[in-house]
Amino acid sequence: MQKQIYEKYGLRTDKIENVDGYDTFIIQNYLYFIVPAINITEGEMMELQQMSSYMLAKGDAAVASFVPTRAGTIIARIHEQPIVILRSHIQPYTRTINIGKELAKFHQRGRTYPYYVNYCKRIGQWKDLWGKRLDQMEMFWRSKVQMHPENEFERMFVDSFPYYLGLTENAIQYLVDTELDDEPYTVDCATICHQRFTERLWRQGAKLPTEWVYDHCSRDLAEWVRYFYHTNRLLTAEKMKSFFTEYQRITPLTTFSWRLIYSRLLFPLHYFECIEGYYLAREEEQKKMYEEKLSHLLNQSGEYEQFLGNFYDLVELPANRFSLPKMKWLSFS
Fold this sequence. Notes:
Blueprint: H1 2-9, E1 17-19, E2 22-27, E3 30-36, H2 42-57, E4 65-67, E5 76-78, E6 81-89, H3 99-111, H4 126-147, H5 152-181, E7 191-194, E8 212-215, H6 218-231, H7 236-250, H8 255-266, H9 269-280, H10 284-299, H11 301-309, H12 311-314, H13 328-331
Antiparallel strand pairs: 1-2, 2-3, 3-6, 4-6, 5-6, 7-8
């Protein structure tokens, strides 16, 4: 790979290491990330490059920039696969960041982004995207029911899907009611967000624009909660309160924002990604991992219902005073 990188980019490196799922290398004071570009269109890439330049210009030194090829393009092909290379300045010392505060500042900068976004735009599209994803999986589920499950994973999928179909329909209805009943404020305008925000994304001190979309800030807040819940359930309450407290010291959230967060937590994204991941996996080891993950999700579904039913209380939000509707069926879980 080093030879192809030199041919395409003119960058010489003797050592490539895997860091948090990315191949990386260091030249002088820069950390370079080799990022697969299989699922990112050229239009999206151009918008992400513009967002990256803007956030750097606004003073976010942790944002990685795109490295052009010798030919002046963003995307290169190495071993017949499209890739981009991003680079981030290596900090002279490790900085401990307050994730809630840092995310609020990131969103604050992103809200002032002045350019039109087309390909990376997700704001206002959740209902259609969720509905489409549900319809596709329902069709696939029906085919599996007719053919009968072939293994333990498919049996779990066939048995569990009706429950998650209902949960998804509840999420869509909660979202629709929010858009009908509540009024967005200035803070609810689109900003630069992440596909799936977790603390791991910023662990290396670099913010990779290939992870970004243009959406409502609640996307990142909800996905942080989802990831944290499924990896650290025992510590959820205090950590969540601290996260939202720090975020709101920079940007207080509106009732519209809170309701979007809740609707996104209702949407069982973790389930969809588990099912999709299994059927996209090529290696038996990967399939086994998804089978174990699905079994764990199903075993913990009752606990997740309780978590959803108590969410507003866990973050110490007076739901009644703010007229935040709760899902009644979750209150009895």
